[in-house]
Amino acid sequence: MRLADELREEHALIERVLGSLLSFVARHAEGSAVPEDGARFVAFFRLYAGAWHHEREEQVLFEALAREAGLPRERGPLPALVGQHHHLAQLLDELAPLVQRPLEAVVAARLRELASAYARGLWQHIDAENSVLLPESEERLRRVGVLELPGPQPSPEALAARADGERLALAYEPARDPGALRGEGCVICPSFGSPCEGVEREWWNEWEWDEFADRLG
Fold it and tell me: Which of 36, 85, 93, 196 is most buried, with most CB under 10 Å away?
């Protein structure tokens, strides 16, 4: 499915820019970053990762899963992932004013804390979508005859934010965060256990469980 492939490609860029954000924050605290780049990072995550990427997931993919595949809107992965989008947006709102001001020690510590929480949360969110949501979505939509989903074109603002993100990823070598928890499956999802019990319990029907047991032998 082209939409799913596009979302995966967008995830790859967002992941890189998250690493660059951590590098920028470290350099900003030392006074060696370009101060104006802070606003560019915020615009990338608000306009490209948020207003373009996340909104397209919610308004196109999630709506199709509920409407065409009959998946629940009120519980399970769909509202859990929307809730994560909102939580990440709140973290970004807290981070935004700090990346555009001279940093005292206390402010720098808070900025590092927020940037780390934002990056780790969004990395986990992407891992859960890449390993569970997108393959499950493609399969469930295929079963009901939906092989492609039309969607909007990116706005000029989203395209400009993407271009800035690509430049930032080159200007600030993406940092690795040894404390970040990465992986595959529902267990990597920040919402696993509460409020979502995982795609198997929330979405699978009886024959899917039987088929899974047969594969295990």
Answer: 196
Tell me which amino acid residue 75 is: R
- What tokens does 25 get? 């924050």
Which residues touch 57 (CB under 8 Å, ≥6 apart)?
7, 81, 85, 129
> pLDDT per residue over 172-210, tens digit each?
999 999 999 999 999 999 999 999 999 999 998 887 777
d(CA 104, CA 118): 21
Tell me what percent of the residues of the chain surpass a pLDDT of 90.
Answer: 86
At 110, list the tokens. 């808070």
Are 186 and 132 within 8 A, CB to CB?
Answer: yes
- Spatial contact of 182 and 188, defined as CB atoms under 8 Å apart: yes
Q: What is the residue type of 214? A: D
Structure tokens at 78: 């769909």
